[in-house]
Amino acid sequence: MAGRRGGGSAGEWVNWAGDQSCRPAEIALPASRDELAETIARAAAAGRKISVAGSGHSFTEAAMSEGTMITVESLRGVLDADRCSGLVRVGAGTVLADLNEELAALGLAMENLGDIDRQTLAGAISTGTHGTGARLRNMSAQVEGLELVLADGSVRHLTAATHPELLRAARVGLGALGAIAAVTIRCVPAFTLSRVDSPRPRDEVFSAFDELAAANDHFELFTFPYADNALVLERNRSEEPPRPRRRAAAYLNDVVLENWGLGVLSATGKAFPDRIPALSRLAGRFASGSHMIDRSDRVFVNDRRIRFTEMEYGIPREHGPEAARRVIEWVRENRYPVFFPIEMRVAAGDDASLSPSYERDTAYVAVHQYRGMEWRPYFEAVEAIMDSYGGRPHWGKRHFQTAATLAPRYPAWAGFQAARDELDPGRAFSNEYAERVLGP
After folding, report:
1. I need a labelling partner for 327 at 20 to 30 A (CA). Which of 35, 46, 184, 300 fits?
2. Helix, strand or coil, per DSSP, at residue 341
3. CA–CA separation, 188 and 357 (whole Å)
4. Of 75, 12, 90, 9, nearest in space to 39 by CA
5. Element (H, E) at 378
6. pLDDT tens digits along 49-100
7. Domains along the chain with CATH numbers
8. Maximum distance among all alpha carbons in the chain?
């Protein structure tokens, strides 16, 4: 799922979805923090703009560069760990899947995760990646400290005790403040989750949205716009021991049904758009109940093999069902050819300056479009709906906002800009995307 160099030409970088690419003047792979600092200082002195690429799972242009692109994949692994406090220092380029295994070996876990584990830790927190849980904040809220390399090659150690305002900005920094070399995260003792998936009438689920969110440690739902049901996912802590699924059963469900099956239906819908409503209803009927009990990260994560593009907005939680209904109504009224489901999750408010959940409990509404299919009219319509609720975009997913439209939605916007002026006054860590969403 990582972005890649290659794709037929030397020096090309392509994201996971395959719809963002660039040819930087230089792609650097520093092997240590010192090499990272040297690379950055050299690029800045040469007047080249600098970007840091994670796994390439962003759907935006956030990592794009015509200057120096740095990949920190060599800065990985657990560097220090205190099991008593749960504080773990981790290399910025550590892929979440690998981090989960290392934490499990230490008897630790992250308290919440998203449903993808192929991002790097630094990339996940920098874009505001979240899981779901009415009482749980996004991943960046688990950050206790950052080691940030600035344009002159110096290293700033940011903690809540030493630099609280800078840390609040850098936790969701969009790569615009410097290059993260290491992250100290607050972990919890390893735990087991019980996951129950159940198909239910969508209107019933929307009516009980608040109750379902409050009743479960982790709650989310998927619903096809042209179907009338929703697949509800409820995950809760369990005292039972993990019961990993047999490899064959996991392969059948995660790969054959959720990926190959959905892929076949998606490709059919792409070839025959007029059949998408019927295919959606068919896919909705395929959604069946299931139950699993396993180690937390294995229950959080899904195997995503189908390529798509995505938009996701965070809005005040009380408006979540209404906003989703409006999206469904627009799709049906316009008979728009979209087969992929709408996903809804929840998160508690937090204090990272540019977090979509900043100081408000949030419902996240995500829409997707299958690769190669027209997506812009759909996403523009969805964004207009989310704008009416003061929606804030997920920074790693498509949106059409600018600094002018975003600034009023973030009470701590000025604080972030002050941190940007202090940490990167020369705007070495900038590109067209950063200039569009943050300003020059």
Report:
1. 300
2. coil
3. 22
4. 75
5. helix 376-387
6. 999 999 999 999 999 999 999 999 999 999 999 999 999 999 999 999 999 9
7. 78-189 (3.30.465.10), 192-393 (3.40.462.10)
8. 60
